[in-house]
Specification:
elongated, 1 helix, single chain, alpha+beta
């Protein structure tokens, strides 16, 4: 129950699927993960959703914010977006 090449577990209890009926469906990209929701500008300042003006002293980055990925989250890119926008938020806060 072990793969000597990749050192992965092998489930020897699995059996082939040979008898139908089989069904097919079309899959399309869709929203499958909420990235948060705080609205920010390009300097990571949190914006008041009523006025779209920055809230003094409030910054956000990563999954606390929304809109970075558009309508569909791109899998496995959340870490980079947290790092990049976290750095921008830190730099902007340090200037304030």
């Amino acid at each position: 129950k072990a793969d000597p090449v990749w050192n992965r577990y092998i489930n020897n209890d699995q059996v082939p699927l040979v008898d139908g009926p089989w069904y097919v469906c079309e899959l399309q990209p869709k929203v499958h993960h909420c990235m948060g929701g705080l609205v920010t500008d390009k300097e990571c300042r949190v914006l008041d959703v009523r006025t779209y003006k920055p809230i003094p002293g409030l910054y956000a980055a990563g999954e606390a914010t929304g809109g970075v990925h558009g309508a569909v989250r791109l899998g496995s890119v959340a870490i980079l977006d947290c790092l990049v926008y976290g750095r921008i938020a830190g730099q902007t806060a340090a200037k304030a």
